[in-house]
Amino acid sequence: MTDEPIISITKLEFTYTHGTRPALAGVSLQIGRGEYVGIVGLNGAGKTTLGLCLNGIIPHMLMGQGSGAVRIDGRDPWTTPVREMARTVGMVFDNPEFQMSQVTAGEEVALGLENVGLPYEEMVPRVAEALELVGLAGFDERSPMALSGGQQQRLAIASTLAMRPSILFMDEPTSNLDPIGKEEVFEIARRLNREAGMTIIVAEHEVEVLAEYADRIIVLDEGRIALQGTPSEVFGEVETMARLGLRVPQVAEFAHAVRGQSAAARRGPLPVTLAEAVAWVGDGQ
Ligand SMILES: Nc1ncnc2c1ncn2[C@@H]1O[C@H](COP(=O)(O)OP(=O)(O)OP(=O)(O)O)[C@@H](O)[C@H]1O
Ligand SMILES: [Mg+2]
């Protein structure tokens, strides 16, 4: 991580044209290069809106009233064309099937590159590289519709990676996947983050997974940041999270429930992953 944040958001407010209240109501946020950030919040909290503000879909394709400043890797999405922003922020959405439009997986990955006018000879190695990164090397000629949900979502990730973005925003990427598919997607995200230094932002309800992988958790509530910190700091706030209507990892819930009833529970922050819980219980013996 360098000192200069890759994402800098100041007092961002946005109300959709047909919105009844601000979707974002004054969000200030800085994200470091190479950070892995999890965003949690109830339906309507503003998670998707925040993502769309990063890649310029808002305000260029979805209209509304906005104010504040957004700076993404040196660019201002409010004044930069969307196709230009797609080179910086890759977006992956919740339903992989809806993101597929081509006959073969290779064409699917090439689509974005065609849209930015990349010459064919540069496209071929980029497609191969992107498929390789998500573990789909050799899948070029396969039909996207014949892939499993997890593979389709990896293909959607490959399509954004082909643009070589520095930031990957995944919006509930595993909500339509089975456990194996979920695991595949999070494993890819972890590798991209750790090995390629990619900045990862993921809106996700799977708090157990976020506790495992994320450096920081941001809690959105009615368009505002209600809480942020390390997974341990945020998910350790069991009562605040419950008040916000949000889940914490079962491990943290359990530790919170037994706190005060065992020697272990009296010390230190609450565990939020299974490994931390095992150490925490062990410490109390
Ligand atoms: N296209 C739109 N037009 C009008 N209002 C919208 C639009 N999209 C979202 N909203 C409103 O903006 C607010 C934030 O919605 P957003 O979709 O960003 O929340 P979210 O946290 O992603 O929710 P979810 O968990 O359901 O995906 C909500 O009040 C929602 O009703
Ligand atoms: Mg959403």
Keywords:
6-stranded mixed beta sheet; binds adenosine-5'-triphosphate; alpha/beta; 9 strands; 20% strand; single chain; 285 residues; 3-stranded antiparallel beta sheet; binds magnesium ion
Description of the molecule:
With 285 residues, the chain is α/β, with parallel strands linked by helices. Helices cover 38% and strands 20% of the residues. The chain has helices at residues 47-54, 57-60, 82-85, 105-115, 120-133, 149-161, 179-196, 207-213, 231-235, 238-243, 250-258, 274-283, and strands at residues 7-16, 24-31, 36-40, 64-72, 89-92, 167-171, 199-203, 216-221, 224-229. A six-stranded mixed beta sheet has the order 5-6-7-3-8-9, with helices on both faces. Strands 2-1-4 form a three-stranded antiparallel beta sheet. The two termini are 38 Å apart. The structure holds adenosine-5'-triphosphate (ATP) and magnesium ion. Magnesium ion (MG) is lined by residues 47-48, 171.
Task: Give a short synopsis of this structure.
The protein has 285 residues and is α/β, with parallel strands linked by helices. The chain has helices at residues 47-54, 57-60, 82-85, 105-115, 120-133, 149-161, 179-196, 207-213, 231-235, 238-243, 250-258, 274-283; strands at 7-16, 24-31, 36-40, 64-72, 89-92, 167-171, 199-203, 216-221, 224-229. Helices cover 38% and strands 20% of the residues.
